[in-house]
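Internal ticket - ligand job 167, zinc ion:
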Amino acid sequence: MNASGLKLTCLQTLQASGQLREEGRQMYLDLDPGNVKGLFESVVLNQLASVTDDESARAAVEKLFALQALKRVHDAGEVQGAALMAATWCNSERMLNEPEKAKSLAKWAKTLGEIPKDFQELVEELSPELQFRDGSCCDRAAKKGGVCGHPCCKKAAQEDEVCSKCN
Ligand SMILES: [Zn+2]
Ligand SMILES: [Zn+2]
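stdout (structure tokens):
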């Protein structure tokens, strides 16, 4: 076994025992910076699972965004679960209070598969465009990556709502 293989085995053992500390994490991330092997992802998931306070939650959420930026996911279900959990933390005023991050995590989760029932309410609240009626003016605009220009829809959007006339 070569040196990096050995390092990997040690880290996998460490991670399995739930004792992956910050230096271990960084080493692991450096071994798979593009999440090609899924190691980056498993470190991030491990870090999210071992969050104990706001500070560690914040650090874990940052790593999750780093994973998102890589645009390569191996276990979509696991990553979606992590994204939804992180969205819950970001959405909580008493925890991270980062509504914009919560929104973007919810959108990402949506791309990773059908949202589990327990989180549907949260995702709808965070990401009103997901509630557009299929084929409505707003839906068509959103699918093209834009926003609907109708005055009624714009007004609703300013209030963080979905235009009820059109959807
Ligand atoms: Zn519209
Ligand atoms: Zn409208």
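Auto-summary: DSSP finds nine helices and no strands in the chain. The chain has a mean pLDDT of 87.
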